[in-house]
Amino acid sequence: MDRNRPADITALSLFFGFGAILCAAAALMVHSTGELPKIWRATAVSTLGTEAVSWLVMVCIACVVASLGLWRVSYWGFLTGTILLIIGLIVRFWRAIAANDWWGLLIVVTVAALVWLYLQRRANLFVHKET
Q: Which end of the chain is less packed: N or C, by CB atoms within 10 Å?
């Protein structure tokens, strides 16, 4: 079935593709040197040490699946992308709560509301239709 891909779905697909490239690059850096460069040390990945490679590879694979699925305008791509966005928002939410970062919490809630509205609006594009 040939479907037209809207520009926002294309952008979201490219976003997940970029995330996959970043995860793969970070995994290669950790695997080759055993430690992260200075720019990555402030992230949660730095606390994992060498176990970070397996987590980064799993996130990379999930981002590739979401990117390809959204590029093909398929239901499984929409589902994978939605799950990744929700997990990311939950992690940011708990980090903001733990750090007592009220501005970060406000940003997370605002972004979550915008994601919710967007997903509701675009969900009908991914529904399987009987022909």
A: C
Q: Is residue 112 part of a domain?
A: yes
Please state, rounded to an integer, the average pLDDT across all residues of the chain.
Answer: 81
Residues 6+ apart with CB under 8 A from 86: 115
Measured between alpha carbons, how far is 6 from 13 in angstroms, rounded to an integer? 11
Cα–Cα distance, 115 to 82 (Å, whole number): 9
**Residues 35-68 pLDDT 10s:** 666 666 656 666 666 677 888 889 999 999 999 9
**Is this prediction's pTM over 0.85?**
no
Boundaries of domain holding 121: 7-126
Question: Domain for residue 2, yes or no?
Answer: no
